[in-house]
Amino acid sequence: MRIGLLGGSFDPVHCAHLALASAAREALGLDQVQLIPAGQPWQRLPLGASPSQRLEMVTLAIQGHPGLTANPIETDRSGPTYTLETLNALPQGPDYFWILGADQLSNFCTWRHWSEIAARVQLVVAQRPGSPLTVPQELAQWLAANQRELIELPFHPLDVSANEIRNRITRGESTSDLIPGVVAQYISEHGLYRQRTA
Ligand SMILES: Nc1ncnc2c1ncn2[C@@H]1O[C@H](COP(=O)(O)OP(=O)(O)OP(=O)(O)O)[C@@H](O)[C@H]1O
Ligand SMILES: O=C(O)c1ccc[n+]([C@@H]2O[C@H](COP(=O)([O-])O)[C@@H](O)[C@H]2O)c1
Prior knowledge:
Catalyzes the reversible adenylation of nicotinate mononucleotide (NaMN) to nicotinic acid adenine dinucleotide (NaAD). By secondary structure, the chain is α/β, with parallel strands linked by helices. It is built from 8 helices and 6 strands, in the order βαβαβαβααβαβαα. Strands 3-2-1-4-5-6 form a 6-stranded parallel beta sheet, with helices on both faces. α1 links the parallel β1 (2-8) and β2. α2 (51-61) runs antiparallel to α8. The longest helix is centred in the first third of the chain and has 14 residues, at 15-28. Nicotinate mononucleotide binds next to β1. The site of adenosine-5'-triphosphate has 18 residues, from α1, β4, α4 and α7.
């Protein structure tokens, strides 16, 4: 089994997340890609939606996307969300591919025990407008020393961010081009992002 993992705050999930997960699945021949909403993304708090709301939005968003699943492993856990803890809790056996955008790659060496994460998964990075795709020096050295490579995913750049979506909702503007209709409806029904949280 080859399983892709796309972790995120998903506050809210948007079309670039879905495109990224599907692109990785196709390009790398993955059996499935699991979207994993972080329970308490410690570098991100406060968030506009609760862990269960972000999980529900992801569950709605992946409807009709074959091979994409929502994994509640991090929203079911309490305390700050550390990716290594998640990897430790996943079943052994499959080959895991951790998918991330260029912005998070730049940040990767601030993750808790990042080198253990890099040893456990194949890292897969996608370009993102506004974030030059640069490999942090420490990670580049680690990859070379451990004869490991970073996979660069062929991915058509999409200038979409959850921050832009939250801002638009706060301003009362449409987000229909950036998020699935079911997610827009959920946000409206739950009154999310009408006021700025950070
Ligand atoms: N437009 C995009 N292109 C490529 N990767 C993306 C894009 N949007 C999000 N990602 C990646 O998806 C993962 C989860 O992202 P996250 O849930 O934090 O969304 P975000 O849009 O970056 O949020 P925010 O705007 O609040 O910072 C991260 O690895 C991020 O780099
Ligand atoms: O493990 C860590 O210390 C760590 C630090 C920062 C980010 N992450 C993970 O990176 C993913 C993307 O995070 P974010 O902030 O872009 O939503 C998400 O799965 C986070 O849990 C993980």
